[in-house]
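Exercise 3.2. Students should predict the tertiary structure of the chain below and write it as structure tokens, then compare their answer with the key that follows.

Predict this chain's 3D structure.
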Amino acid sequence: MDDGQPARARPIAAMVAWLDHIDPGTHRRIKGLRLVTAYGLAAAIGALHDVTREAPASVSVGTLAATFALWASVSEARTTRAESSRDLAILCAAAAFGTLTLALFEPMFREFGRGGAELILVAGAFCVGYLKRFGVTGAGVGSQVYIGQLAAYAMNLALTDAWAIALASLIAMIAAIVPRVLSGPAERPVVLPALASETAYGNRNISPALAMGLQAACGAIVVVLLNAAVGLIESAWAITACVYVVATSAVGTAERVRRRIYGTLVGVPIGLVCLPLAEHAPLVVWTMAALAMIVYAMALPDRYDIACGAFAFALIVTLVASGVHSVPLLAARAWETLLGGALGIASARLVFPLRPMQSR
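Answer key:
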């Protein structure tokens, strides 16, 4: 049946229709554009020699600032420019704090042998769950503390890099706040799911936030022990998966894990197929990654599976474009992510399991 459209215009129309289905009011698309802009702006400012000449040459200030700005933009969920700017500054500072904690304590925990430094990530994992008791800003702060620790762990930062970390935080604040101010009131923040009331275990009442923090921390500890016992190539990714699948109930955690598995099993293979393109056409790949992150922002509130698939694809292709070409390493990040999801389910069911809120 001829609908009056040229054949070459139909795929574009289908894509637009799909975007409208996922994001009917274009609100999340604006947020996606904002977080991509924040990442690029932070990376560009951090690459300026006049800005970073005082920082140690061994630290990529641009990469660190871009990480802070990107995830601060993801976590921020306010309505007005003033509130959003305030939260973005707080979130970037929280990421810097998390980075400093790992840089400070990593030499001490390194003495525990393999996986010793990852014990610091356990504290960050607990913050991700527990700080949700303080609302949307608290949830963002907990996530940023962990993101900062993860960045320091991946970049092997030390306390001598404190000035670079502080500088990256300032750059991230500028890069995240400017796009938010320019985006105006067109965004519609997502409301976090309400936490259940306190749950009784024996003679004690445990708050849901405390239970979620303990669930994430226990899963992280198991990953650390597995790494110490058998050795995991990318154990930090297993910890991260375990941390971010913990939801406000055991049923919700299982659903998030199911959706994360679906997304990972789709996004990673597509990313691996694009490996030759990532090596020979990095500009095209970075463009595709930016589009994937916009889809991630659009789908995150309601379609966690699509969000995880988009992020998995963006992660794989950007790693390859950045020089990581080891297929076993990339595959390890995929299957250890699934391992972390399985541990997240186990923790949610065994460590102070939470029941879903009952509607009245």
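Discussion points: Residues 99 and 148 are 4 Å apart (CA to CA). The longest strand covers residues 199-201.
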